[in-house]
Amino acid sequence: MAKLIYSMITSLDGYAEAAEGGLGTGADDQEVHTFVNDLFRPVGTYLYGRRMYETMVYWETAHTVPDQPPHILQYAHDWQAAEKVVYSTTLDSVSSAKTRIERTFDPDAVRALKAEAEHDLTVDGPNLAAQAIKAGLVDEYHLFITTSVVGGGKRFFPDGVRLDLDLVEERAFASGLIYARYRTR
After folding, report:
1. Are 54 and 177 contacting, i.e. CB atoms less than 8 angstroms apart?
2. What pairing do the DSSP bridges indicate for beta strands 178-184 and 165-172?
3. What single string gives the DSSP state of each residue in 131-143?
4. Residues contacting residue 101 through CB under 8 Å, at least 6 positions apart
5. Which residues share a beta bridge with 171?
6. Three-state SS for 8?
7. Domains of the chain by residue range
């Protein structure tokens, strides 16, 4: 059975999206990007909400941008190889291969995906992840914690949910970014 992983960049005070935008620095350097590439290369399916998909679909054509460094080209290749499921009631079509639209998030359908999958899945974006967390579907949490406190926005973890987690891996990067991987007990 595959794992469902929730992973995002988060501010030091726990926001996956700041009220006014950016989360600070540290997540866009080559060291971090190469680590992310290696970490998520085995992922077979990405679960996205519409907004996260619209951000990530860049990787469908990133390889066509001139002078891309090797770590960017590698991530584009890995992203293109994975299946994508976009949960949206408003999106009419998708612009990437290996991508389908689902109109509603169905926890039982995600359980079936996990049971049938040969490779891990990720759920990306705080709104969609909140649904998966509340349904008890998330097996691991991968936080990339910036050095910024942003004071508000969309929280990494949804309100009203109690989780008991085990820290299974951590790493600090030269940029100040901290990676922490937790497993659900």
Report:
1. no
2. antiparallel
3. HHHHTT---EEEE
4. 85, 86, 87, 88, 91, 93, 94
5. 179
6. strand
7. 4-176
Going residue by residue through the chain, which has 185 residues, state the pLDDT in tens, using 9 for 90 and above.
999 999 999 999 999 999 987 776 665 689 999 999 999 999 999 999 999 999 999 999 999 999 999 999 999 999 999 999 999 999 999 999 999 999 999 999 999 999 999 999 999 999 999 999 999 999 999 999 999 999 999 999 999 999 999 999 999 999 999 999 999 99
CB contact at 8 A, 175 and 26: yes
- CA-based end-to-end distance of the chain: 16
Instruction: Please tell me the distance from the alpha carbon of residue 28 to that of residue 36, in angstroms, as a whole number.
Output: 10
Q: Give the position of tokens 């991968």.
A: 142
DSSP assignments along 15-42, one per residue: EEEETTB---SSSSSHHHHHHHHHHHTT
Closest-CA residue to 8 (of 25, 24, 21, 27): 27
Architecture of the 4-176 domain: 3-Layer(aba) Sandwich (3.40)
